[in-house]
Amino acid sequence: MKRLEFDPYNLLGVPHTAPIDDIKAAYRRAARRLHPDANRSPGAGIQFQDITAAVDLLSDPDKRAAYDELIKEQPQGMSFTFRVIPSKRTIGLLPEPQVFYLLADLIPDPRTSEATNKRESRLNLTLILDHSNSMGGSRLDRVKIATHQIIDQMTPEDILSVVSFNDFAEVVIPATTVTDKAALKARISMMMASGSTEIYQGLTLGLQQNRQFLAPRLVNHVILLTDGRTYGDEGRCLDLAREAAKDGISISAMGLGQEWNDKFLDELAALTGGSSAYVQSSSAVVSFLNDHVRSLANVFAERVTLSIAPDPDVHVESVFKLAPNPQQLPIDVGNISLGSLQINRIISVLIQLEVPKLEKEGFRSIGRLVAAGDIFANRLQRQQAITEIALEVMADPPVEEPPTSILDALGKLTLYRMQERANEALENGNVREATRLFENLATRLFELGESDLAQQARSEAEQVAYTKSLSDKGRKAIKYQTRHLLLASGPGDTNA
Amino acid sequence: MIICPFCAFNNKEGVFFCEECARPLGGGEASATLPTRRLNNGSDSATVHATWGTARFDANAQIVMHIRDSAEAITLKPDNTTLVGRYDSSSTQRPDVDLTPYGALENGVSRVHAAIYRNDETDTLTLVDMGSANGTHLNGQRLMPDQPRVLRDGDEIRLGKLVTHIYFKT
Q1: Which domains, and CATH codes, for chain A?
Q2: Cα R_g (chain B), whole angstroms
């Protein structure tokens, strides 16, 4: 059976029986908002290509008939729900720009369970392990133990490759099915610590190994584990990540200890929809990696993307993934990679938009969101869900209580942002501002009952004031723990 | 534009949490977390005063500072920065408001204790602790050093153990 890449009727918002004139009219309506001449946002560019492909297909009678035939054979399979909640339903007619928020949730079909999906989602996993000098001793030992356990977890259907790197990279286990587990483990045990850290080398070779078995029916995932800073090759690494995202490979990055570059690893992971994490002690590595690999096996849909096409005068200010792994997402790409949608978990994204000064009352459209993903249970048929966002503009809008889910998330996101701004201020040498922000953060954390974290922010503030720099450890702890707060109350499990 | 009631930061319209101090701006949670203030009106000290005095401070308004246990009040027209503290022989600068005659030394007021800033753009005053030894309290809440808080008509400021009340006179 042929895979259906997209649903042209859905994209244009017309019924299957619509006459060609209606279809063309629907296309023109949408194109007026999405055409690159009118709308310069990268999301609109992607969506414009989609609707153009849709109208091309439907205006050719032969192709349309063939497509109609094809969907008749297509079984009605599983699907995800795309739910978008705005922070307000009515906005005020204001002579100044205003901010508002959208909470976009992707919810997997509740009928899928791990048992039925298991056969469908197989793993193509690549581990890229740092074995530079600093990894010596207990760190490398733990990584070896963790890798052994991952091998035990995998089935003969899964594919594993392992690459180790310091100044140069080598293949420890070439991409292979996990059949002879003892032999694979023996190779891992022979790894020795030496040399320095150069991530680009490892990433290149790791992605090359992963691509050997790259297939849409697999969960193609790369885990990069490092404890050091890479110098001069970060830009090239990010280029590799962009390429990987296009091929449907997601990269997760794990930093061990204090020295690694968190900003770089966060960005690397966010580009591909993977996650990034901070493992403070080497003893946590084993359980952490195991949990991560286990979550990879329970995938409902792969290669999930979100494209945001705001109306030409609306501006996307930030996109932040709240669940399952909180992270800042890039806004300068058309299709934002969200990674995989797991069974019984939801993907939740908070979008901050700015509406310009408004001139008249009445309903107005704000933008168009498209979420898409390959659903394993449907033999990877791609599902696209489209939501049009419209709001009512009123001179005197009624007082609305914003949805608690948005308020909850924003309260914590503001803290995370504050921490980011404090770090930025410090990087720019603005010590006074950084101190003030860290103290504000501490005050607010105390008020929220997060006294341990508040204490930490307070002592960092003092350290900044005296030494004009932060401890690497403290900075990372504050960053990842404020980010973790989002998870604690955020919309995590659907079954929680 | 939404002015944060806690730190006077100008937030964009539609924002729910102040970008400067992360406190909620209006809505449900805000009213719940506002510190309630008790008024010193004699016997009925349990009366909770839930409304605030105005935060608006016009360009030509004046501050009247009543110091507890002192008959006379200090009236001043604040500059952009008004330093409050205690002047003595080892001071390097004279504070704009010198509290020495009001028992500043005995009450633990620092030489440079706090500052009042005037914001012309938003017509507000903010109070900042300048890293004093015994702390600055605004309506019973201790301020973190260098964090501005909005001043309102009728607010109680405690510098060390010295209690004063601030009124706006237009």
Answers
A1: 8-112+299-394 (2.60.40.3670), 122-297 (3.40.50.410), 404-489 (no CATH)
A2: 16
Whether B18 and chain A come into contact, CB under 8 Å, resolves to yes
∠ CA A328-A333-A339, rounded to 5° = 55
User: Could you tell me which residue, B53 or A467, shows the higher pLDDT?
Assistant: A467
Closest Cβ opposite residue A418 in set B7, B22, B27? B22
d(CA A210, CA A125): 7
CA distance A162 to A202: 10
Q: Do A407 and B18 touch (CB under 8 A)?
A: no
Would B78 be classed as within a structural domain? yes
User: Using an 8 Å Cβ cutoff, are B163 and B169 in contact?
Assistant: no
- By CA distance, what is A99's nearest residue in B? B14
Joined tokens for residue A35: 């055409």
- Which H or E element spans position A220? strand A218-226
A176-208 tens-digit pLDDT: 888 888 999 998 888 888 888 889 999 999 999
For residue A436, give the nearest of B18, B19, B146 by CB distance: B146
* Chain B neighbors of A356, CB-CB under 8 A: none
Neighbouring CB atoms inside 10 A of A148's CB total: 16
Q: What percent of chain A has pLDDT over 90?
A: 15
Nearest Cα neighbor of A447 from A459, A436, A458 is A458
Q: Which of A49-53, A89-93, B32-36 has the lowest mean pLDDT?
A: B32-36
Tell me the CB-side half-sphere exposure of residue B16, using CA atoms within 13 A. Answer: 24
- Residue B15: list chain A partners with CB under 8 A: 99
Q: How many beta-carbon pairs below 8 A join chains A and B?
A: 71
- The tens digit of pLDDT for each residue in A59-68 reads 888 888 888 8
> For helices A472-489 and A451-467, what crossing angle results, to 10°?
150
Which residue segment(s) compose the domain that B70 sits in?
62-169
